[in-house]
Amino acid sequence: MSEHKIELTVNGRHHRGTVEGRHTLGDWLRGQAGYTGVHIGCEHGVCGACTVMVDGRAVRSCLMLAVQADGCTVTTVEGLADPDGTLHPVQQALKDCHGLQCGFCTPGIVCTLAALTADGAQPGEEKLTAAMSGHICRCTGYQGIRRAIRQIAGTDTSAAQGAAHAEQGA
Amino acid sequence: MNAPDRSGGIGANRFIGQRVPRKEDARLLTGKGTYVDDVVMPGMLHVAFVRSPIARGRILSIDTSIARDQPGVHAIVTQDDLARFNVTMLSFFIGPVEVAMTPLADGRVAYVGHPVVMVVADDRYLAEDAASLVVVDYAEEDAVVSIEDARHGPAVHPDTDDNVAAMMGEDEEDAEFEALLASGAHLVTQTVHHQRISQSPMETRGVVAALQGDEELLVHITCAGPHLVARWLTVALGNPKMNIRVVAKDVGGSFGLKNHPWLEEVSAILGAMLLRRPLKWIEDRIENLTASNQAREQEIILRAAFDADGKLLASHADYSLNNGAYPMGADANIAVHMFMWSAYNIPAYSFVSRGYYTNTAGLAAYRGPWAIETLVRETLMDAAARQIGIDPIEIRRRNLCTAAHQPSVTSLGIPREDITPAECLEKLLETVDVAAFRREQAEARKEGRYLGIGFAAYIEPTGAAGSIGVMTGELAQVRVDPTGKVVAIMNVHSQGHGTQTTMAQCIAEQLGVPLADVTIFDGDSSRGGFGPGAGGSRQGVIGGGAAIRAGRLLADKIKTVAAHLLNANPENISIEDGMIRVAGAPEMTRSLREIAEIAYGEPSRLPPGMETGLEAQIRYDPPAMTFTSAAHAAIVEVDAETGFVKIRRWVSSEDCGVMINPAVVEGQIAGGLAQGIGSVLLEEAGYDARGNPIAATFKDYMLPTIFDVPDFEYVHANTPSKAEGGFRGVGEGGCIIGPPTLVNAIADALAPFGEVAVDLPLTPSKLLAVIDGTPLPPKPMSRFHPEWVNPYADTAAATKTDGPVEEVPAGATLLPGGTHAALAETAARGIDGAWNLTLATPMGPQPMTATFATEGSIVRGRLESNEGAQEFEGTVEDNQVKWSMKVTKPMPITLKYDLTFDGDTVTGKCKMGMFGTAKVKGQRV
Fold first, then answer.
1. Check: CATH 3.10.20.30 for A3-79?
2. Chain A residues in contact with B711 (beta carbon < 8 A)
3. Distance CA A114, CA A56 (A)
4. Which residue from B65, B533, B658, B849 lies 20 to 30 Å from B570 (Cα-Cα)?
5. What ipTM was estimated for this complex?
6. What is the rounded CA–CA span in Å between residue A26 and residue B303?
7. Is the peptide bond before B201 cis (omega within 30 degrees of 0)?
8. Which CATH architecture has domain B818-924?
9. How far is the C-alpha of B486 from the C-alpha of B578, rounded, in Å?
10. DSSP string for residues in A23-70
11. Where in chain A is the domain with CATH 3.10.20.30?
């Protein structure tokens, strides 16, 4: 077993540690760095639940080794909302549109959509939807995710059921 | 879209019926949920399993010596180590399973993935390393894989005579009924082969278990209901002298899989007790897809006779279900038949149901476990429409149970008082312009494009309590804290259902407080009242009812206290937005907090004799069954070049009564429909002939993606139910009605080419075979079939199999041996005396004790079970005893027993009125 020293930034915090060469980034983020919002769904790169942002790009943390993230800047789902609790626009859209049920696949979906809309990028509905082909949700039938994508993309949401009454309540 | 106005509650409909965002979402969207793998304990060790690579065979030896010496390894555990705990594996009904079963394999393996050895190490990587170095030697035997294998092959389990795990109904042909079927103008036969499904929750199974001293076992487990798991574990462990506390905060989906612990979870829990260290086991996806219990894999042949006008006369179903090796309760699924025709008017129905053991992963529940009835019936109705030459909508209109047909009781005893499938269909047709579609379809066909429309209708039972022992009522505990905040403890337990929102809506509605001020806690068996959790679409109906009643009770107390403090008449007090107001006296307005502080802290200011505090709890038991009705339509296009199906439109018209939160209702419908689409087009957890799983990853087990599921449209009817709040359950319906809606649309599209056999999934290659008129080769015959010919017989004489072979156990200690010898020895002992019997009822095996006293050809006796005791008198002929007795639970029926005694064992059957025939077996006490 090989051991490697790594240094990386996760959600704005500097982390330094020693990892075995075979440890995945996902396992390291959960087990060593404490970011349990990273959900391991399949460990073979299909379901997308473990997606995080590495240097701004959406990456499956089950298919990347922790040692490969040495020197990188990583953002997990925990690092997106403002410190005062204000949700990231992607998170807010998914909440407004009932885009989640059990919430297990959600962190990966949030990270992919956040990566695509980072730095003022304005991808269209089609591009955001295409990116969802790499995420499996077993609960929602993708209805609310699609509505959230329309909200994020600024597509007309008047026909979308669910978003219309989102101003009420909790 | 919102629920109709209702009066009665204070401030009715401030929250109930509103599409409010979910309270749990902010936590889940920011990665702050607590799923079982997020639980870490000091000193916690990790588990990996060594699993059987063969489907059937004997374990010759287990060598753990190399594995034991690996770094970080703490223990290598086999069944020999776990035997001391004497665990009884239980079904969902908390009764012992029908076959000998141990947490880890005991001498034999019965499916690929069967856990044999448990490795405990510092982390999961090290545990898997060591697991790979455990050497297990097996003597492989021919695997019994398919239902057809089970019919002809050797017994999967050494302790059963055959592979019939459960049987219900009429197993002998009834000439009178056959004549009835033949008497109609039209006889329509529909056959469905449903593939095996993996529930595939995104969060796999997992457990963290730790002893807390000797008085508590703490179990964090991803499950459908912590109380049910605690109950299951307490009984399985033989009622140990400690409390078993089960905790599950966030759960990443269940869909029927996580109702109760199974082999791996039990092994890990026992391991924690054995090693006295916290243990964690988190299933990986390959384990989940290959070794977790699964669902469906069914065959059903439904026949229906229609008169010349297309009206139903009689119907018969022959249903078979693969139970796998270790089902969570041997199952022939009586519900399939109870609800087969419950939405329709039909004078006569008969059936036979058989569940079979095989060397495959065991059966667990899956959303709408009886859903095959709607699939086979609704596809039969379309086939009948084509065969008889009438419109598929018209044939349903002629046969559906409408308001004019109610109240009525089906031939299987289902009372119908307020079902609305016909109304749902008519509402659907207001949204879907069928005539316009038919014109478009005709035009498209001219261009070689194949469009189709499919319809289906059904009803489903929801919110059952009281008829199945484990499915109980629900308790809601609600309090207004001295801070004015509202806390409720419930145990409906969400696996994504959003009950922290919907239950809060029910309570806020009654109390008149902001939704943000109400917090629901659940997920811990040490809190609140007993409730089984999710299952059977029960949360809204039962939990919602309990929440409303407890909220109302508390609101009444608040008003009484406030009226006393403010010198007002309680009838003039109202609670709005957390403020207590007196009609006509705005200066008297007080905050809920002010009243609460007094209620807890200043008893002398309360009405004389009143208990302090603002707390209420109430337990709610709903009507026996609450039905939800629906009709759906789907429009598809099938590409005649590729066989791919594109879903162009899907409209749901359902009646789930009063809706608590329409967005949650629609989320449940949509999720179920997506799973139904997966069943029809994509998913298959199959096996090869040797019992090897052929879908081990999400690249092989294809779940629907965003491109496979269309935008759904919803039409809501809102006929209030008789349950508190008027709610009807909506958790499973999409998964029940989705498949036939889609199959019918595909069949309609391809009607120009002929009938589409319903052999799921309908892959492009199967549909191309219909389009091209080149049928796919038939499925290979079971190697155990008497007519099977080994295609390799000439070249592989050494491995030739001569059909069914009675297995002779080589190692007598591996099997409960000596049965035959024992029989011969004790054959003459007779009938008189006490016997332990097991009746295989639709609710699972029911243990009973019987005593018999024979006198000539007369037998008198007494039968005792949990349901009570009853005397009977019957007849004896040689070693055969027959008697009849009337029972009143779960409904009044006459039971006719027919038992044959042989030495110390007894076998036979019990005819249970409309529930058909159930197996009986037993031993002398």
1. yes
2. 143, 146
3. 9
4. B658
5. 0.94
6. 53
7. no
8. Beta Barrel (2.40)
9. 10
10. -BHHHHHHHTS--TTS--S-SSSSS-TTEEEETTEEEETTSSBGGGGT
11. 3-79
Q: Residue B463: is it exposed, middle or buried by C-beta count within 10 angstroms (0-12/13-18/19+)?
A: buried
Q: Which of A141, A138, A134 is nearest to A44 (CA)?
A: A134
Asked whether residue B550 carries a pLDDT value surpassing 90, the answer given is yes
CATH of domain B25-33+466-620: 3.30.365.10
Give the pLDDT confidence of B166-194 residue by residue, as tens digits.
Answer: 999 988 889 999 999 999 999 999 999 99
The structural architecture, per CATH, of the domain B375-401+417-463+625-678+692-779 is: 2-Layer Sandwich (3.30)
The pLDDT, as a whole number, for residue B795 is 55
Helix (H), strand (E) at residue B664: helix B662-681
Which of B202, B539, B697 to probe the A interface (max A CBs under 10 A)?
Answer: B202
What are the extents of the domains in chain B? 25-33+466-620, 375-401+417-463+625-678+692-779, 818-924
Shortest CA gap A165–chain B (Å): 6
Same CATH topology for B375-401+417-463+625-678+692-779 and B818-924? Answer: no
The predicted-structure confidence for B897-907, as pLDDT tens digits, reads as follows: 999 998 889 98
Domain boundaries for CATH 1.10.150.120 within chain A: 89-153
Indicate the fold that domain A89-153 takes in CATH.
Answer: DNA polymerase; domain 1 (1.10.150)
DSSP string computed for B702-733: ----TTTS--EEEEEE----SSGGGB---SSH
DSSP structure class, residue B554:
H
Q: What residues 638-667 of chain B have any CB closer than 8 A to a CB of chain A?
A: 663-664, 666-667
Determine whether the interchain pair B703/A138 forms a contact, defined as Cβ–Cβ distance below 8 Å.
yes
pLDDT for res B367: 96
In chain B, what residues touch A91 (CB-CB under 8 Å)? 26, 29-30
